[in-house]
Amino acid sequence: MSMNPDTLIITDVAPRDGLQNQQVAVPTEAKLELIRLLHAAGVASVEATSFVSPKAVPQMADAAELMEHVHRELPGLRASALVPNLKGLQRAQAAGVREVAVVLSATETMNLKNINMGLAQATEVCEETLLAARKMGLRTRAYVAVAFDCPFEGPTAPDTVLRLAAAMHRAGADEIVIADTIGSAAPGRVKTHFEALRQAVPVDQLAAHFHDTRGLAAANAWAAIEAGVRRLDASVGGIGGCPFAPGAAGNAATEDLVLMAEGSGLATQISLPGLLQAVAYAEARLGMNLGGRSIKWLRRRYAGPEAAPART
Ligand code: HMG
Ligand code: MG
Q: Which of 39, 61, 252, 265 maximizes the CB count within 10 A of its CB?
């Protein structure tokens, strides 16, 4: 798997990470429309949903129905689904999913809170799910969550993250997604973390997943890029947060990362005005103000033909 160093591959996780935690029920049609708008904006990869227990995450109960629509309408889109175990994998396969993501947290307590198993069992379940997914011919991602700090156990030892990333790589994950679940990382740590991780996993197969709790997600994304990473997760409008990780805000906003990439000579194929339409749609559906750090400037910049020239 080789990659152009001048290209950034963004997976928009808003439909899963962003919507899993919403207080109001979001109809399947609205999820589909958000995915359509992302696709129309040029986003080539989305995490569309999760096949998890509907008791644990009621918002994702319509995973199969949503995926069937996505495949029918947008056959060219890379649309992955998070699966916590073999049951989730089987449900995903039955719905025609071609890419799945498993989630392994780096601490005992975070695994227990998130998927009701300890670290050892979670590692085994992720490995067996990855192996089974590969036998089915699916593309696979493996998250290593709380890779910087755990809301229950404090700072995560970089060696633990390395060991788990290597285990997921050995189990055949095509992509290892290093996740800053509660958004507590800072660029210096990110750079050293990823420089170490590159020794365990080929950098082409590493991805970074930041949450913007402290406003540093874009800076952290840039540090990962400086360490050679070219795959980033983001969520349009910065929608999101993990229901089982107290204090976690939404993801790095897709529009912030695209703006950063454009200004830095990295191609994304994603249109900023297209993303603004997706943000506006999500705001209307969810009844809340959304948008990353750059949203006010972007709205002025792309407000229409009368918009002020983009100088500052
Ligand atoms: P459990 O209760 O321990 O599971 O939950 P169980 O195996 O004892 O089964 C209990 C019931 O759930 C049974 O049904 C199973 O069939 C069913 P019953 O007999 O009671 O009718 N079940 C399932 N149903 C649907 N789909 C499944 C499934 N598995 C079992 N896949 C379980 C364990 C893992 C299922 C549960 O804890 C769960 O679903 N957790 C998911 C939590 C989640 O979605 N968290 C958010 C995603 S992770 C995240 O956001 C972080 C990330 O963004 C990266 C970052 O930022 O760090 C990825
Ligand atoms: Mg997340």
A: 252
